[in-house]
Amino acid sequence: MSTDGVNTSRRMWLIGATAAVGAVGVVGAAVPFVRSWNPSAKAKAAGAPIEVDVSPIQPGQMIVVKWRGRPVWFLHRTQEELASLKTVESLLRDPNSEDPQQPDYCKNTWRSIKPEMLVLVGICTHLGCSPLYVPEKGKIEPSWEGGFFCPCHGSKYDLAGRVYAGVPAPKNLVVPPYSYTGATVITVGVDKENPA
Prior knowledge:
By secondary structure, this protein is α+β, with helices and mostly antiparallel strands. The chain has two domains: 1-38; 48-188, Rieske [2Fe-2S] iron-sulphur domain (Rieske Iron-sulfur Protein). The chain has three helices and nine strands. The chain has a three-stranded antiparallel beta sheet with strand order 1-9-8, with no helix packed on it. A three-stranded antiparallel beta sheet has the order 2-3-4, with no helix packed on it. The longest helix is centred in the first third of the chain and has 28 residues, at 8-35.
C-alpha cells in the first residue's frame, strides 16, 4: 500500500482530536445522567431530621408531625397513664420491647427516653393503617386502659405503643430514632444514644 501524498502526522492529529472531542461529549452526556441518580432537594428534605418543640403539649394531649412521609405521634402522658402501663403487661405480646430493630431507649415500660413523652410512628404494624388515639378507659373493652386502636383490623396497642396479644398486628408500634436537643426540643431522625 502506497502512502504517497498522505500526511500521516496530520492524520494522527485528526484522529486524536476526534477522540478527545468524543470523550468530552461522552463525559458531558454522562454527568447529567449520573447526577439524576442523586435524590432531589425535595427528597433530601423529606428524609431530613425534624425538630419539634414539645413544651406546648399538655398532659394527656397528642400532636402529629409528618416525618419521611409518615405520621409521628408526640404524646404527653399523664402520671395516671404512666401508672396504667404496668397493669396491662400480662395482656401484651411483647411487653419488654425485645425487637432488636428498635432503639435501646424504648426497651423499658414506657418505651421512651423521658417517661412522660412518647414518640411513635403512627402506622399499624399489621397492614399500615393509622391507629386512633383512644385515651378513655373502657372505651374499646372493659379492660381498656387507654391506648391506640386500629379501626382497619382491630389491632390494639397500650399507651406505650405495645401491641396486645391476640390481634393481627405482629409487633409494637415503631419508635423512630430521636434525641433531645434541648429540655423540650426533640429531633426526630437523630439518635445520639445509638449513632449509626
